[in-house]
Design brief:
alpha/beta, Rossmann fold, Adenine-n6-DNA-methyltransferase TaqI, Chain A, domain 2, 2 domains, nine-stranded mixed sheet, four-stranded antiparallel sheet, 19 helices, 25 strands
Length: about 500
Amino acid sequence: MSACRARYPAGVDIDRLIAEARRAAEPEPAGRALLDAVAAETGGCPVALGEALEGLRADDSRRGRGLWVTPLALAEAVVAAAPLDGVIVDPSCGAGVFLVAAARRLLAGGATAESLGARLVGLDTDPLAVHAAGLALGALGISAQLRCADATATPWAPEVHTVIGNPPWVDSEGMVRAGLDRAALAARLGLRGNWDLSAAFVALAASTLAPGGHLAFVLPNKIVAAPWGGSVRAVLRQGRVEAVEDHTQRGWFAASVQPIVLRWSRSAPRDHGVLEVGGERSRMPLPERLTDPWPLRPVPDTRGCVALGSLARCTDGATVSEAYALRDALRDGEPGPGDVRVANSGTIDPLTFLWGQRELRYLGRRIARPVIDREALPPRRREQAAAPKLIVASMTRVLEAAVDSDGSWYGAKSTVVVVPTAVPLPWLAVCLCAPTASEWYRAVWGGLALQGGHLRVGSRQLEALPVPPWTGDEAALEAAAAALGQGVEAAARLGERLYVAARAGAGGARW
């Protein structure tokens, strides 16, 4: 419960009032009346109004609108470091939490409520949100420029100097359900791929801001790493990235995707600003030339290494259609002559299959000792299962690769199958155990992390992982096989020594 919501009088049952408003014959007037009551009871607190607004919308409607109430502490942190020059726009203002945070800071600095009425602009497609924002700003004596409008289809203001907010995190399917013309928007903004609606808001802000203007947005972390974010990142490289703040470990939202804060200015490209890790102001300079994807951690030194994809074939586990087709072919029991054991992300630890120790959860089934007849597999999956390989968990905190040295395992959904093509399997296994491998993956692909910091590991991303080059050193191979027999810690130590040797150019060193 937020501090604002805790200020409701004990006799006010806000959940009952929300339920009544949703059942009303005319829900919009009832919703406005509810928001009026909430504003009166909480002094116009934008978080309380946002909670009420969220409650008024059914879950499907809320997700379709990308509605997540931004915590006041996060909005205040975003606004505190923004210049707040000239006209300030929140193009998806919701209940006005960012505009209120900006107004409070400016009022404390000596601005008048009357002057701020002309400078603060908010847009939202939800008329109840616009009403809520008006109530929140009205409590400060400010009559802001608020409009019920689609920010992707209408000008924001004659001239815009600062853009703040938390634009809607709506995926492509949600946009189609909402009736947005994705094709027209993509063509107008130069967006490519399966882009999120937040990407459109970033591109619009970058083109709308006056020269020298500033942007401060809360965005889904995947915008810095996902392929669809590439076109937006290219636009932002034309200005100055002032800061990227990683908040993925803070738990601000109940959404599976977690936030970053992007600060950007429409100024001449030059050296970029800072990366702030974990929202704790732990700062490091951003690279002078931002590569793609953008890192969310310091990137380990991997000089002398080569891409994993040049040494092995990486393939995602079962597709969705394959997973459903094979669901009923899975059995529980010891493998027979024509069977292979089955593993997925939840039954893999570093160097270890947890078969028989942890149940495999698979499309509603729970199987203690999952096996499948090889002949039930599609031909390419049958060939894959028969190959010596690594099976890598696709949802994990660190890279977790289990070794299948004799082709007796099938990597099901939520795995990546790595079949060596130019390197011995034991040597590759110890490389993936090295802390440097996981640190590099989190730094470069951390923008794809889920709530709780779980990495999403995909074949494309894993192919890019730098690993020490294989030099044909038999002593190194013998050491790798021995380390695997000793366990994860020994393998990790040896893997790290291989990375050190690659940096030093000592690929022929003995182990």
